[in-house]
Amino acid sequence: MDIKNEELRDVCVEALDCLNKPGNGAYDELKSKLEYVIGSYNYDKNPVGLFEIGHLALAALEEISADKPRKVKKVLLKNLKESLLQKVEA
User: Fold this and answer.
1) How many independent structural domains does the chain possess?
2) Handedness of CA 11, 51, 55, 34 (dihedral sign)
3) pLDDT digit string, tens, across residues 14-68
């Protein structure tokens, strides 16, 4: 399961990069939480925070995508959804 957790971490980093784009200032608190759980995972390899905040990031990215579809890559949304579903299935 470590590989799946690493993939989730990587896609959360991509989500953070996307949220850091100009015009996404409304998501500053989410960005801080995402930075924290990524760092926490890198330290202790416990993916719980990644799953919790990953769901919030997915909702935010879907909201941004609904308003401005070109701001969020469809592949990012797909990969984040798949990574978050893997915990449910595992």
Assistant:
1) 1
2) negative
3) 999 999 988 888 899 999 999 999 999 999 999 999 999 999 999 999 999 999 9
| Residue 21, both tokens | 């784009």
As a whole number of angstroms, the distance between CA 32 and CA 16 comes to 9
Helix (H, G, I), strand (E, B), or coil: what is residue 81? Answer: helix
Domain that holds residue 18: 2-89
Angle between helices 2-19 and 74-89 (to 10 degrees): 150
Distance CA 40, CA 25 (A): 23
> Under a CB-based contact definition with an 8 Å cutoff, are residues 9 and 42 in contact?
yes
**Between 7 and 25, the higher pLDDT residue:** 7
Q: What is the pLDDT of residue 1?
A: 52
CA distance 17 to 76: 11
